Amino acid sequence: MMGFLTAPRLAFGVGALEQLSALGARRALVVVDPNVARLGLERRAIEELRKTDTAVETWAGPPVDSTVEELEPGVAKANAFQPDWIVAVGGGSTIDAAKGVWLRFERPELPMETITPLVELGLRRRCRFVAVPTTSGSGAEAGWTVGFRREGALPLEVGSRDLVSDWALLDATLARSMPSDVRANSGADLLAHALEAIASEWSNPFSDALAREALATALTNLPKVAKHPDDDEARTEIHYAATMAGIAVSNSQVGVGHALAAALASEFRVAHGRLLGVLLPYVLEYNFPAARDRYGTLAPLLGPASVQHRAALPDRIRPVLEQLGIPATLEGVGIPAADLTPRIAEIARRASNSPGAVANPRVPSDDEMQALLRIALAGGHVNF
């Protein structure tokens, strides 16, 4: 038996933030990405909350890829303010940080390292959670895992169905101010989520439907936004597709691409989405022998030629990544061979131990992980 278990309640469109005034919130802590705060994008959320006389406090959260320790000022603010709602306004890192604050506020006695999907967290006794994404890629607003950086080690991944947002409010106008590099990395993140959800051993008809729709939307609209960043219609479609892919992958599982990206990020400060974009074509080639039938279901969407042999799907995806400005190799994103080569064995070991490898259609050995890294470093084809 399988189950399609989790998705937040969704409000979408230019009036999505109006849902904030319908929450019945008494005290709302708004956790905002510092870059978003500099642009003042959280003001619309605050104005909407105050329509119903909600008391509002804000915390301009930690930097991208925060550690658990960097959450403590936000936890202290929550303890002092005692919110009944936390509202996250920002990209995936900010949404994760806000969920970390929520978890530490509700369950301060529970070490994050001990939390697994089998642990009953009992959240929402004190507080509930709203996510307002300002990027279009991570799908964190729909996810039930959160990650926190650890120096020289894999990120700490905390997973619980309790961590799904109560509401995700999707207003693509909030993504208008995304810098071009963030837009590119987010687009790569979206493509990786959709394709890894489709290939996952834990996929199901419901996650498949969302993943395919997200992929089709992304392939059509990402090139449009790359050429015309002010294309509101295309940007809106991508914003929704990111959440679709987030729901899909939350109800299937990520794969080897995410495992390798997380392991690389533990050594090199390169954006997660950018690493995923570089790795994605190589992972598609690697998975093909085991996922041929899964990828074959994309034939009606992409055309039979796009899935008929090992290099076909990567060749369909690479031009879109190029239009986004994602380099084709790890060297291209600033990871020198001289720095990576001595670390390949350790990075491969960490990737093999990542939960992201569990449901991949091929479960790679350490040697295969190392070979993937070597090919992705300078380019080439995966033929093993």
Walk me through the structure.
The protein is of the alpha/beta class. The protein has two domains: 9-175, Rossmann fold (3-Layer(aba) Sandwich); 180-378, Dehydroquinate synthase-like, alpha domain. Helices cover 47% and strands 12% of the residues. The chain is built from 14 helices and eight strands. The strands form two sheets. A six-stranded parallel beta sheet has the order 1-8-5-4-2-3, with helices on both faces. A hairpin with a 2-residue loop joins strand 6 (145-150) and strand 7 (153-159). Helix 3 (72-81) packs across helix 4, helix 5 (180-199) packs parallel to helix 9 (272-296) and helix 8 (256-265) runs antiparallel to helix 9. The longest helix has 25 residues, at 272-296. It is globular, with a radius of gyration of 20 Å. The chain starts with 8 loop residues before the first strand and ends in a 6-residue tail after the last helix.
